[in-house]
Prior knowledge:
Blueprint: H1 2-20, H2 26-35, E1 38-40, E2 52-55, E3 59-63, E4 81-85, E5 92-94, E6 99-109, E7 114-120, H3 122-125, E8 129-130, E9 137-138, E10 143-152, E11 158-160, E12 165-173
Antiparallel strand pairs: 1-6, 2-12, 3-4, 3-6, 5-11, 6-10, 7-9, 7-12, 8-10
Amino acid sequence: xILSLALLESNRLSMLCYYLIMVLSDRDIRxxxxxxxxxxxxxxxxxxxxxxxxxxxxNFLVFDTHSQTVIDTKKKVDRIMKKIIIKDDEPIIIxxxxxxxxxxxxxIKFPNDLVGRLDGKSSLGRIGLVIHSTAGFFDPGxxxxxxxxxxxxxxxxxALYKGMKICQMSFMQLSSPAQFPYGHKNLKSHYQNQxxxxxxxxxxxxxxx
Length: 209
């Protein structure tokens, strides 16, 4: 009986926390930008009803498939990737079933009580472009540019350009500020303060710094 009451109380607390976690509206995003959320550079016209549009940067990382036959998760991947930088009005072409890493122009700094969710633009999804394959979640305390995991699911190549709207970031309110936000000395925060396109640090999947 006591155990049942404890479980019931636990479920009530879980539901309360669920309802306390909210996606910020446009007015709340603007309010937090004046308070402790940072996006740079920032244009107010990029605020949508519950998200902020972000733009594609000019540098990319692609796998060198000609010299490598396997991606070994116990080895550094920077040795098998090459960097590409595009000029203004110069496209980067993503071929069918090709995967590349890219970056946003914007740098974002999250306060300790907000998390971010990054999603692709619907118009790009409708031509087969996946903007973030898996890691679309940004922890409270994260600071840096967002690295994008882009794939082309279409049957034709897709041309992308520097400065185009590429994705959107929404923000969710935590039930309370994180005790150890991203970048805290107690954590192994591999991508804090990342600049430009940053490749995978596979040490994280092996519990290494």
